[in-house]
TrEMBL record:
Family annotation (PROSITE patterns): HTH_MARR_2
InterPro entries in the record: HTH_MarR-typ (IPR000835), WH-like_DNA-bd_sf (IPR036388), WH_DNA-bd_sf (IPR036390)
Gene3D superfamilies from the UniProt entry: Winged helix-like DNA-binding domain superfamily/Winged helix DNA-binding domain
Protein name: MarR family transcriptional regulator
Organism listed in the record: Paracholeplasma vituli
UniProt keyword DNA-binding, yes or no: yes
Domain HTH marR-type, residue spans: 1-106
Listed Pfam families: MarR (PF01047)
Keywords: DNA-binding, Transcription, Transcription regulation
């Protein structure tokens, strides 16, 4: 499983059903890459995609029971690993880091990569 796939599962695990665009906004990957990620997760039986009955352009994505069971199994270890990594920081430093990462994430979401800025 790659980082984009795990990030997608993690977003769905914590937020519940999301549209494809909401996942893109949370995981910060390109729309074209998201299609590949969702195809892989669907093939593995971890998610479902259903068309919005009112707007056929919108897909709702959610964990399958198998996807939820998978995350129930692996997420506690991931969380423990992250706590271990972050344990060198004080609580205040952890809160500052979280705030700074949110700011960077929002900025990165709005950044457009072009030939001129590479």
């Amino acid at each position: 499983m790659n980082v984009s796939e795990f990030g997608t599962l993690e977003a769905l695990y914590h937020k519940g059903a999301l549209t494809v665009q909401q996942i893109i906004d949370k995981v910060l990957i390109a729309n074209s890459s998201m299609t590949y990620v969702l195809d892989n997760l669907t093939k593995r039986g971890l998610i479902t995609r259903t068309k919005d009955p009112l707007d056929k352009r919108i897909f709702k994505v959610e964990l399958t029971p198998e996807g939820k069971a998978f995350m129930d199994q692996i997420y506690p270890q991931h969380e423990a690993n992250m706590k271990t990594v972050l344990s060198i920081l004080s609580k205040e430093e952890q809160q500052s880091l979280q705030s700074l990462l949110k700011i960077l994430g929002l900025s990165a979401k709005n950044f457009k990569c072009t030939k001129e800025n590479i």
